[in-house]
Amino acid sequence: MKYFDHHVHTGHSRCVKQPYTLDAALDLSLSRGFIEGFGSTNHVHFNSPDQSHLAITREQVDAINARRGKSFILLGAEVDIDHPSGRFTITKKTLDLLDYIIAGPHNQPHRSLAMDGMGKEEFDEYFEALEAIIINSLSRNPVDVWVHPFLQEIEIGGEFFQEYLLDILDDILPVLKEKGIAMEISATFPRDKGNQVEIFKPGLRIDGWLQVMHMITRIYKAALDFGGIKFSFASDAHALENVGDIGAPIAIARWLGIPGNCILHLADLQGRNP
To answer: Which residues lie below 8 Å from residue 117, measured CB to CB, with a gap of 6+?
Structure first.
């Protein structure tokens, strides 16, 4: 079985410090032996929504696939969702270029959650806004994948905000099912986030990496138990060496018993530009 890495950043995302070519990314990912292809998903930022780079990448993707005689690369975009109204930055012109869209919050003031003096009132306000952002953005816009669920809140708090997050998740899961939006199983959690946890529950100052893994497996298990929700695998690569590195997501899916027919493949994300 070969799998699709739907979440890769190359040279047009400001989070990429050493840009690399799509050809180099494809060669490396295919050399892993279990990758069928990947999606280029550079950011469309909420606070600087330039989308001109996507037309350039569309031409590059089409040229590479034509030269290689098969579709190995798809064109997506990672869209920042950061407003409680669900306001979306993708234009109709851009939408027509894309094979699919992935989306999630990226610019929440999550570091404030660890500040001295923060308490229930402030937490309630933060998570009420977060729920509105996610629910309204996913329900009102053409999103195919919800990326790295609750990334910022888990990276700062591990399991500290578990009750808030699982409560919000209960309201998100019906939206995912109704809209056919997949939940991303992301390599960024085990690879990048364990050493960023700053908030620990009293008496539970365990390793941050373990807290991150406990939290994300609860989220994925809740989605699996809810039923009717698809999943997708993501390297969330920001460097060439990480493209196609979705071993951890595959392992998580196997540990949780997620059926193979619930995992998105390349063909499942070609809806807009088959």
So the answer is: none
Say how many domains are in the chain.
Answer: 1
Neighbours of 47 (CB within 10 A): 9
**Other residues' Cβ atoms within 10 Å of the Cβ of residue 18:** 9
Nearest to 246 by CA among 183, 195, 182, 188: 188
pTM value > 0.90: yes
Could you read off the pLDDT of 150-184 as tens digits, one per residue? 999 999 898 999 999 999 999 999 999 999 999 99
Nearest-5° Cα angle at 166, 124 to 147: 100
Report residue 70 as tokens.
């098969």
Residues 6+ apart with CB under 8 A from 189: 148, 151, 154, 212, 213, 216, 248
pLDDT per residue over 201-215, tens digit each? 766 677 888 999 999
**Residue 69: CB atoms within 10 Å:** 7
The sign of the torsion formed by the CA atoms of 153, 155, 160, 166 equals: positive
Residue 159 maps to a domain? yes
Q: How far apart are CA 126 and CA 218, in angstroms?
A: 21
Residue 207's alpha-carbon distances to 122, 148, 161, 197, 204, in angstroms, are 26, 20, 16, 9, 9
Alpha-carbon distance of 77 to 7, in angstroms, equals 9
| Residue 74 included in any domain | yes
**Going by C-beta distance under 8 Å and a sequence separation of 6 or more, which residues neighbour residue 187?**
234, 235, 236, 242, 245, 246, 247, 248, 249
Residues in a beta bridge with 44 = 79
Parent domain of 127: 3-269
Q: What is the CATH number of the domain that holds 105?
A: 3.20.20.140
Q: Is residue 25 part of a domain?
A: yes
Residue 50 lies in a domain: yes
Q: Which residues pair with 127 in a beta bridge?
A: none
